[in-house]
Every structure is written in C-alpha cells, then in structure tokens.
C-alpha cells in the first residue's frame, strides 16, 4: 500500500531531475568556466568567478539583500498570520470568497502594480496628500525610493504566499484541540502559544520559504521602488546576465546563493528531527 | 511489394503537396524592441506583399543575443543597436546582406550608412537613430541648461534622474569630462566613479523606464532621456525642453540585420526594403518620435519636425557626439564600478 | 463584540492595502495621457485602441491558456508527488522535501537561461508548449509545499477506517483523503496560476517565434513606456472576475437562506 503510494512521486522525481537538476548542473558548469571578451563561455576550468564574489563589495550586496529579505519575510509573517486566522475562522461560504479576493489583485501585471505603488508613494502621491490633508504632516515625506518602499513592495507582492499556506493549515485545525485547551483552563494567550501556534507550524515554514526565496532574488521591486539606488543580489545577478554579459559570474553568484539556502534548509532539517514530523 | 512502393510514393507525394500547400503563405519573422513599430506599417506590408508578418519583441540587446546564440528560433529580421553588432558578428550570428536586393537603401542619409561598426553596410541597414539628452522642466528651472554639469548641480538636489544603465550613465559623464564615450582608461573611469558617487545624494532616482511620470508629476525637474520619449513628454506638457549638451552625447543607431538562422531571407529583404520606403519611414518617424536615418522620409515629415535641430542636428552628428562601441574586457571594469556606485 | 469589530477592521485594512494599487491602475486607464504622472481628464480612448490591437488580444489568449494548463498540470503532478513523498520513510522524505525546495531557490533568470539551453540541447521546439513545461517546473514545488502540511494534519486512521468500512483504496482516496487535503491542493493551484500569469523572464527565454504572453509584451514596452491600453485591459479582466465572484457569492448566500 505505502509502496504503491510512493510510486505516485515517480513522475515528479523524473520531472525534477530533468527540469531542476540538469539546469543546476548547467549553472554549476558555467560558474567554473572562463569567458572571452565578448562573454562567450569557454569550457576551461577556473575558480576566478567565486574568488571574485568573495570580495567586500559583493559581500556587502549579499548582506544587504539578506537583511532586507529577512525583514520582509518577518513583516509578511506578522501581518499575514492574523489575516490567515481571520479567513480560516470565517463562515464556510465567506472563506473561499475571502481567499479569492485576497489573491485577485495579484492577477494584474506585476510591473503595472509596481508602477501603481510608485504613484501612491511619490512626493505628490496619494499617501502624502492624505497625510497632509488630515494634518499629520506639513511637508511631504520621502517615501518612494527608500528601503521602506522596497519592503512595502515586497510585502505587497509576497503576502499571499505567506497567508495561503498558513490559512490552509489553520482551516483544517481541529476545533477540538482549542476547545480542550480552553476547557483545561488555558487563557487565550496560552491556548495560542501552546496549541494553535505549534499546530500551524508546517504552514508557517512553507510560508517563510515561499516568501524568503523570491524576496532574496527580486530585482524589479528594488529597481522601481528603491529608485535603483541600491544594488541587491537580484540586481547583481540580473546585471551579469543582461548587461555585463558575464554568465559565468552570474552563475557563480547564483550557485553560492543556492548552496547557502540549501545549507540553511539542511540545518533546520537536523533540528526538525525524526520524531517531530509536524515540523518537517 | 510493388503496390506497397506505389502506396508509399503516393503518401510521400501527398505529404509533399500538403506541406507545400502549408508553406504557400510566405512569412517573415520579425524580432524587434517592444512597441518599436507602428502596427499599421505591418498591415500595409502584409497587404502589399502578401507576406505574413510574425512579430515578436524583446527588451534588451542581451536578451536578443542570448536567444540568437541558443538557437531554436528562426527570426528573419532582427534590430539590434549598432554597438552590439560587433558582438553578434564575432559570434557569427548575422548573415551578409546583398544590398542590390534593397533598392531603397539609396534613401538613407549617408551620415548613417558606412558606420565604423559596419563599413559598407555588409551586415546592417539603419532603422532609427536617436540621442540621449537632458529633458528638463524649463518653466520650473527658469534658466537655460546646456551642459551635463547641470545634472551634478546641488541646486537641483533630489530632482535629478540618471539612467539605470551602466554604459549610458558612465558614458555621458565621460563626455562631460571631455573624454570618449567609449573610454576604457581606468584613471578616467575612476574619476567618473568619484563624480557619480558624489552625485548620488542629489538624485531623485536611477531609472531607464520610469522617468516620464515623476517629471510630469513635478517630483523631478531634470532627467537623462531618450530623444523619442522626450518629444512625447514635450507634446504632453510644453513646459519641458530637450537639449543635447554642449559637451556632446551618446548617439545610437538601431539597424536591421538578417540572422544566419533566418529561413525566409527573400521575405526579409522585402521587409527591409519596405521599411526604407520614404512614406513608410515618415509614418514610422511620426509614430515613434525618434529620428529617421532616411533622408527621403525626413523630407516628407511636417514642418517643425523635419527642421527641428534637436531631432535632426545640422552638420555631422558624429563630430561632437559618439556612438557606443563594444568595450570588450572593460565590461567587467564597468560592472564593478557600477556595483561600487550603487552599493555606496 | 469589540473583538469581532477589531477582526473585521484588520481584515478590511489588509484588503484596502491589497486593492489600493489596483484602484490607481484602474483610474489611470481612463486618464487622457499616456503617462501616469498627471490626471489630464477622462477618456475611453485606451479602451477603443485596445479592441483594435490584435497582438495584445493574442497575447492575452496565450497567457490565460498557459496559466490554466500549467497550473492544472502542476497541481496534479504536485499533489501526486506530495502523497508519494508522505508515504516514504522519514529519511527519504526529508531528502525529497529538500529536493523540492531546490528549484524555489533558483533566481528566475537562471531558470530561464538554463531551460533554454536544455530545450535547445534536446531539440524541443520552442513555443507554446515549451513555456507550459517551464511554468509547470517552477509551479510544482509550490504545490508540493502547499499540500504536504495537509497530509501531516491528516488523521492517519482515516484511510484505514474508510477501507474497513468497505471502500476500495481509490474510493478512499477520492472520497476521504482528497476532500481533507483539498484546501492545500487549491492553495497550490491558486499559487501556480498566480505565478504563471505574472512570469516574464522564464517565458521570454523559453518561447519561440510567434508566441507572446502579456508579460513579455508589457516588459518589452519599457523602452518606449507601457501604454495605458494595458491598464484598460487589466481593468476589463479585473472587473469581469470581480463581478463573477460577487455573483457566485450572492447566489450561494441566497441558497443558504
């Protein structure tokens, strides 16, 4: 029975090998190649691309991107968890509607959405005018082209990727557990910390991964909302492929990034241990 | 046995007939920058030649390069910028052009033929050209601007937009200092780097595609701009002015080429020749807002455009201004400087 | 009461946050200027021009078809995979989960470039189906990641109970297991659809001549400015879907009563 079920994963494994492992190998090969002045790939072994990346200037870019991606992920979690809870506890009919309503804005084009944010955040834009109208500020604030604007853009675009997995776990949570905790005299805070939060952990982990990865490699959000004034990892990689014609260096940066992330996953995998499968 | 052979032959013949029937509708695969073509021109071409145009778009030269290099596509006409032509040629991606098949080639302004990047136009035929200049709100600024120095003037702090594009932004700064747009001299480049780092706090933003909105909204006062975009902004709000700085600037030319992998070369020639017709060139010039290298087309443009000195400067455009050429190894140096500026 | 109000206020605030940019986008579709900087008066001309633009309509058709096919494909493949992985021994299972995260960590451009190299290498013709394959590839992990938590939540005795009551394994799956993990499956499909609609870089690199998606068209316009025709198109699509949703919701409410 279990064997038969395991077989269901075979097409996926085959797919992963062809479409994910092979590309990874291609990138790894590129990253160890030399280049011609025109950017052609020369299949001659070199570690120069990696050596280059571990210079202070590029490490600075890496550090800044990680910080920004971590803060955006945290913001998504803090804002998204209550939202997922509210949707999950809404009436049976309202729930699906609320989920759809939540995702619908993301069915418009990403570039247009980001342009719209520029319109909202700019000096004479909606937020500044609103704040001035209610007398909270007298001078327009500089909102656009700050790290804050980049974060708003990331939270906006990635929030559903946090809310949906958490929601799908919360919605099936056994009300019995919660009632039991309440019956045993736990106050709401204890119930939440001891029962609900641990039970929703798998959803949280999914959400964090789905938000953190794209946040780390995004480049359009930082270009448009950050005014192109800070270089992020995503921009750096993008530049190597689309303006510096240095696929080798771009591949090396990508490889470092992939390895970093994998190590983090593996370490967290150790901690999640054999018994506590809920945490996978 | 014999019947089988006959049958096989019959099937084969039928297959040939069918495919021939399919191939009857001639096509030309055109690969161009996005929104860089008037759809009406394509329709006119289809009507006149009965050749169907399959039209695709890309957004950077490097994307085009990556696609052509990888293969698997069969574009018949591509329109890279001349500064990339060398790279395409070095990788053997472009086929030689037989100019005798493009009679309208004679309509072109000799200034734009026989360029350094392609002597004798063996591989490329100019499509459009333009400049990078300063677009500024003349009413709000009050004084005339004539130099790149204005972009470094603390007076306009927070109101200046530079291009988010390595070669263009470093290039005009080089011009400002009196150097070549294509300089690879580390000393000159380090001078540029210092200037651009100092300029950064004065900037509104770096962007290549979102400068019109902040200008029109009053959030920014002056910006580097593509000539075609600039004239569209001016037609929206006449308070704006577009100038070519006295130190000279970047002139770019996009030209039509036929990739080696093209399957419909005859159709490609017809397409290129059609684009070079005077009336088509004029129609495109008005649609795109950029400058046409087509002398005969220029003459058909309305007054105010054809004699506009900013769109069609007097004398030789290349005397003061430079055209970008590929900087080869220095690409890495440029990228490094750019990262340095951006992460400062 | 206060608590309830606070809850709805919070949800309302989040919805305002999600919809504010969309409102701006819709307003600009009526702006009599091709720029977003200023309001120059009301016009319907972008809508009129949109209807005449055959290439945008073609791209729209491709975009929707690709999103539907690839999100469906990814959901089937991913759900099967999640069930299979869940049935594995913990060690193997952990390895498979790590493997699933792998492609999620790739920057988009890397996927685009390497898939292009792969397709050309194996001689796969570039076009509609090569985009679909690529989209399934980057969507599947999201489905697996969305479905797995639901399986962990599943009562392990549920399936046995169903079979004890005489259900065949396949009946047990369709009637008992699938409904239980459905929220995860739907989440995965929704995420896939959203990702597919928006993808530009990967589609660009893996498409062939004659096949464009809306995202490819929009990004390529940046050299000359994205036309408000696109805003008009977005408005039409958005209003249509929203109306549909509201109608369905209204109907269900009535049925309930």
What's the overall geometry of chain C?
globular
Number of strands of chain C: 0
As a whole number of angstroms, the C-alpha radius of gyration of chain A is: 23 Å
Poorly predicted runs of 5 or more residues of chain A: 272-280
Summarize the main sheet of chain C.
none
- Total tally of structural domains of chain C: 2
Oligomer: heterotrimer
What do these coordinates show?
The complex is a heterotrimer of chains A (280), B (344) and C (257). Helices cover 73% and strands 3% of the residues of chain A. Chain A is built from 14 helices and two strands. In chain A, α9 packs antiparallel against α10 (188-199) and α13 (233-242) runs antiparallel to α14. Chain A is globular. The two termini of chain A are 23 Å apart. Residues 272-280 of chain A have low confidence and may be disordered. Chain B is an alpha/beta fold. Chain B has two domains: 2-129 and 253-314, Periplasmic binding protein-like II (D-Maltodextrin-Binding Protein, domain 2, 3-Layer(aba) Sandwich), CATH 3.40.190; 130-251 and 322-342, D-Maltodextrin-Binding Protein, domain 2, CATH 3.40.190. Chain B has helices at 2-23, 39-49, 61-70, 82-90, 138-141, 166-176, 186-199, 212-217, 227-236, 265-275, 278-288, 295-299, 317-320, 330-342; strands at 27-33, 52-58, 77-78, 125-137, 160-162, 203-206, 222-226, 240-243, 250-256, 322-323. In chain B, the strands form two sheets. In chain B, strands 4, 5, 6, 7, 8, 9 and 10 form a seven-stranded mixed beta sheet that branches. In chain B, strands 2-1-3 form a three-stranded parallel beta sheet. Chain C is mainly α and 257 residues long. Chain C folds into two domains: 1-43 and 227-257, no CATH class; 54-225, MetI-like fold (Orthogonal Bundle). Chain C is built from eleven helices and no strands. In chain C, α3 (54-86) runs parallel beside α6 (128-153), α3 (54-86) packs antiparallel against α8 and α7 (157-164) crosses α8 (169-198). The longest helix of chain C has 33 residues, at 54-86. Chain C starts with a helix and ends with a helix. The mean pLDDT of chain C is 88. Chains in contact: A-B, A-C, B-C. At the A-C interface, α1, α2, α4, α5 and α6 of A face α1, α3, α4, α5 and α6 of C.
């Amino acid at each position: 029975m279990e064997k038969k079920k395991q077989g269901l994963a075979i097409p996926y494994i085959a797919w992963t090998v062809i479409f994910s492992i092979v590309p990874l190998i291609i990138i790894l090969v590129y990253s160890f190649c030399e280049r011609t002045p025109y950017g052609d790939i020369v299949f001659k072994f070199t570690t120069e691309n990696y050596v280059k990346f571990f210079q202070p200037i590029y490490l600075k870019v890496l550090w800044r991107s990680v910080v920004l991606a971590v803060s955006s992920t945290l913001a998504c979690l803090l804002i998204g968890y209550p939202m997922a809870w509210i949707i999950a506890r809404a009436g049976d009919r309202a729930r699906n509607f609320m989920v759809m309503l939540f995702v619908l804005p993301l069915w418009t084009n990403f570039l247009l959405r980001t342009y719209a944010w520029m319109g909202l955040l700019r000096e004479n834009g909606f937020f500044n005018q609103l704040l001035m109208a209610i007398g909270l500020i007298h001078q327009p604030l500089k909102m656009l082209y700050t790290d804050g604007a980049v974060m708003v853009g990331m939270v906006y675009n990635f929030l559903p990727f946090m809310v949906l997995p958490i929601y799908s776990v919360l919605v099936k949570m056994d009300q019995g557990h919660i009632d039991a905790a309440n019956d045993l005299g736990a106050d709401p805070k204890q119930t939440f910390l001891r029962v609900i939060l641990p039970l929703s952990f798998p959803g949280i982990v999914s959400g964090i991964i789905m938000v953190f990865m794209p946040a780390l490699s995004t480049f359009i959000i930082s270009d448009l909302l950050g005014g192109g004034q800070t270089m992020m990892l995503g921009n750096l990689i993008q530049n190597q492929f689309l303006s510096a014609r240095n696929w080798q260096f771009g591949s090396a940066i990508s490889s470092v990034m992939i390895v970093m992330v994998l190590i983090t996953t593996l370490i967290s995998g150790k901690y999640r241990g054999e018994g506590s499968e809920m945490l996978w | 046995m014999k019947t089988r052979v006959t049958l096989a032959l019959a099937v084969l013949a039928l297959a040939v007939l069918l495919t021939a029937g399919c191939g009857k509708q001639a096509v030309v695969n055109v690969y161009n920058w996005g929104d860089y073509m008037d759809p009406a021109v394509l329709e006119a071409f289809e009507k006149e030649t009965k050749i169907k145009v399959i039209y695709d778009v890309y957004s950077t030269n490097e994307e085009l390069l990556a696609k052509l290099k990888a293969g698997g596509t069969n574009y018949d006409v591509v329109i890279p910028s001349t500064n990339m032509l060398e790279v395409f040629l070095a990788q053997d991606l472009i086929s030689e052009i037989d100019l005798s098949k493009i009679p309208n080639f004679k309509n072109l302004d000799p200034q734009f033929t026989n360029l350094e990047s392609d002597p004798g136009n063996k591989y490329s035929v100019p499509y459009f050209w333009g400049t990078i200049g300063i677009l500024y709100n003349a009413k709000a600024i009050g004084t005339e601007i004539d130099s790149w120095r204005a972009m470094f003037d603390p007076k306009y702090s927070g109101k200046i937009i530079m291009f988010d594009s390595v070669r263009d932004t470093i290039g005009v700064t080089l011009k400002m200092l009196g150097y070549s747009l294509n300089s690879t001299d580390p000393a000159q480049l380090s001078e540029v780097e210092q200037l651009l780092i100092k300029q950064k706090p004065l900037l509104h933003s770096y962007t290549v595609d979102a400068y019109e909105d902040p200008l029109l909204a009053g959030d920014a006062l002056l910006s580097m701009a593509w000539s075609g975009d600039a004239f569209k902004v001016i037609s929206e709000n006449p308070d704006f002015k577009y100038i070519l700085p006295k130190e000279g600037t970047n002139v770019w030319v996009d030209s039509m080429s036929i990739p080696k992998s093209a399957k419909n070369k005859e159709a490609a020639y017809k397409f290129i020749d059609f684009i070079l017709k005077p009336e088509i060139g004029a129609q495109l010039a008005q649609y795109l807002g950029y400058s046409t290298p087509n002398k005969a087309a220029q003459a058909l443009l309305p007054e105010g455009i054809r004699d506009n000195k900013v769109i069609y400067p007097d004398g030789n455009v290349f005397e003061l201004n430079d055209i970008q050429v590929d900087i080869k190894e220095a690409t890495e140096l440029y990228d490094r400087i750019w990262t340095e500026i951006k992460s400062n | 009461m206060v608590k309830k109000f606070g809850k709805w206020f919070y949800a309302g605030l989040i919805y305002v946050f999600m919809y504010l940019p969309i409102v701006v986008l819709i307003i600009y579709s009526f702006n009599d200027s091709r720029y977003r900087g200023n309001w120059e008066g009301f016009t319907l001309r972008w809508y009129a021009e949109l209807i005449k633009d055959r290439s945008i309509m073609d791209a729209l058709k491709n975009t929707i078809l690709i999103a539907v096919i690839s999100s469906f494909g990814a959901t089937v493949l991913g759900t099967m995979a999640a069930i299979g992985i869940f049935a594995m021994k913990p060690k193997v299972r952990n390895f498979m989960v790590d493997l699933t995260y792998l492609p999620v960590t790739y920057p988009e451009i890397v996927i685009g470039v390497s898939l292009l190299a792969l397709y050309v290498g194996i001689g796969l013709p570039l076009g509609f189906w090569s985009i679909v394959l690529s989209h399934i590839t980057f969507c599947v992990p999201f489905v697996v990641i969305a479905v797995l938590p639901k399986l962990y939540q599943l009562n392990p005795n549920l399936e046995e109970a169903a079979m004890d009551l005489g259900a065949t394994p396949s009946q047990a799956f369709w009637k008992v297991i699938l409904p239980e993990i459905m929220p995860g499956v739907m989440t995965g499909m929704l995420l896939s659809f959203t990702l597919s609609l928006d993808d530009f870089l990967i589609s660009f690199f893996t498409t062939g001549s004659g096949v464009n998606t809306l995202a490819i068209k929009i990004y390529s316009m940046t050299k000359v400015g994205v036309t408000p025709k696109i805003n008009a198109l977005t408005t039409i699509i958005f209003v249509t879907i929203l109306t549909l949703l509201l109608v369905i919701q209204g109907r269900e409410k009535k049925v309930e009563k």
